């Protein structure tokens, strides 16, 4: 890999390179281009943070390498004993936020992406599979943040988004949800229950619109 050529082709500024090199000390692999964050990214790094970068991670860049599609700064937050695993190539566009709480974990699959301005907030565990497309202004949260005083209540539950899922703009994925392979979440939906494989859901709360669907980029 010609590192200097890629830096030049992607028009990576010196502050982007310096910030990314700083974060490499938390990464299992020290390849300078395996974990790239835009210079405008707000970062917080707690204690005992682990980043297992088995691929390539990009935060804050659009496909053209600029940030004109969002005025918000990207956010990358690692609280104490948090873990991020990158199992391939994952990109999160301008204004995106990845926040991992104490003892929480996020696992990102290969060839998956966030367009811009979306949030992944984990206080327990969020798994995103391969070939997942997450559109604008999506929120994925495995916690309610506050306790509701009822019997058998759980504030935090794991979220699993399986392979080949398309999540439309301004959708919200709430705690405890598994979205099956090949499914589509319509724009503006609030997903509170599991979604079967190859299913289109939409609405508030999201309901099945059509089964046995297929889609492609």
TrEMBL record:
Signal peptide: none annotated. Gene3D superfamilies: Hexapeptide repeat proteins (2.160.10.10). Keywords: Transferase. The keyword Transferase applies. It holds the Pfam family Hexapep. SUPFAM superfamilies: Trimeric LpxA-like enzymes. One of its GO terms (molecular function) is transferase activity. It comes from the Archaea. The keyword Transferase applies. This is Acetyltransferase-like isoleucine patch superfamily enzyme. It comes from Methanococcus maripaludis (Methanococcus deltae).
């Amino acid at each position: 890999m010609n590192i200097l050529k890629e830096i030049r082709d992607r028009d990576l500024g010196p502050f982007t390179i310096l910030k990314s090199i700083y974060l490499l000390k938390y990464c299992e692999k020290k390849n300078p281009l395996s974990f790239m964050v835009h210079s405008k990214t707000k970062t917080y790094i707690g204690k005992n943070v682990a980043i297992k970068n088995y691929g390539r991670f990009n935060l804050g860049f659009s496909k053209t390498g600029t940030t004109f599609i969002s005025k918000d700064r990207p956010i990358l937050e690692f609280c104490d004993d948090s873990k991020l695993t990158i199992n391939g190539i994952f990109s999160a566009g301008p204004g995106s936020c990845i926040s991992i709480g104490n003892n929480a974990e996020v696992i990102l699959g290969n060839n998956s992406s966030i367009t811009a301005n979306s949030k992944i907030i984990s206080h327990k565990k969020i798994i995103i599979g391969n070939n997942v497309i997450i559109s604008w202004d999506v929120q994925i949260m495995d916690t309610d943040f506050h306790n509701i005083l009822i019997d058998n209540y759980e504030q935090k539950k794991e979220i699993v988004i399986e392979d080949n899922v398309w999540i439309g703009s301004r959708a919200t994925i709430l705690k405890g949800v598994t979205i099956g392979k090949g499914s589509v979440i319509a724009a503006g939906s609030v997903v509170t229950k599991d979604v079967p494989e190859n299913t289109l859901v939409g609405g508030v709360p999201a309901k099945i619109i059509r089964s046995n669907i297929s889609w492609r980029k």
